[in-house]
Write a structure and sequence with these properties.
- This protein is an all-alpha fold.
- Helix content is about 45%, strand content about 0%.
- The longest helix is centred in the C-terminal third of the chain and has 25 residues.
- The chain is elongated, with a radius of gyration of 24 Å.
- The termini are far apart.
Length: about 200
């Protein structure tokens, strides 16, 4: 019962749908609103933690997807792949991977309300792979927290996250061009889970 409103008793048969006239009548007596009829959105959380905002839950899944795809594209690359050059004007894989790390660092600063851009100097291939996952973990942890999210989830996705996904695809393509292709799989069937953004990922089905 809504505070300030009296009880209102009504009945209908199982399987019957309450029409708009009846709903309007109930609303006049109870203060019922359309949003009261919508079930609350719930995301599974551990323990008694409150359900996460839907936008944040989606962002975390995109980050887990990025970790899975990026981990696969970078894992087991041949020695020397990082400096593979398709043409004089193209980026090397290590430059692309470093740029992905820059994008994720930028994404974290956007989320924190300090959207400054910085460019890192490429390190070794292994270092940049580790940096990729560290940056994912930092951004995921912030989104999973109760800290305010500066900038919309849509902007975060369309900017740094979508850009990073595009560049992961470039690395996968460069591996094929370099004669070291990654194995194909159905990403729809992949075991991708929010929060799993480290280097350890579930093997492809």
């Amino acid at each position: 019962m809504r505070p300030g409103w009296a009880d209102f008793v009504f009945a209908f048969h199982d399987g019957e749908e309450i029409g708009p006239r009846m709903l309007a009548r109930i609303a006049r007596h109870t203060g019922l609103r359309p949003e009261d009829l919508q079930p609350p959105h719930r995301n599974p959380r551990k323990g008694n933690a409150p359900a996460m905002n839907e936008d944040r839950a989606f962002l975390r899944h995109t980050l887990a997807t990025l970790a899975y795809r990026g981990g696969k594209a970078t894992r087991g690359a041949d020695t020397g792949f990082g400096t593979f050059l398709v043409s004089p004007s193209s980026r090397t894989p290590i430059q692309v991977l470093t740029h992905i790390g820059d994008l994720l660092d930028w994404g974290l600063r956007i989320a924190q309300g300090q959207p400054s851009w910085t460019e890192a100097t490429p390190g070794s291939w292994d270092f940049e792979v580790q940096r990729f996952h560290r940056a994912l973990q930092a951004l995921d942890a912030y989104i999973a927290s109760d800290a305010p999210l500066s900038g919309s989830a849509e902007k975060l996705f369309q900017g740094p996250i979508a850009d990073a996904l595009t560049h992961v695809g470039q690395i996968a393509m460069l591996r094929r061009v370099a004669g070291d292709p990654i194995k194909g799989e159905s990403y729809y069937r992949a075991e991708i889970e929010a929060g799993r953004v480290g280097a350890e990922q579930v093997s492809a089905k």
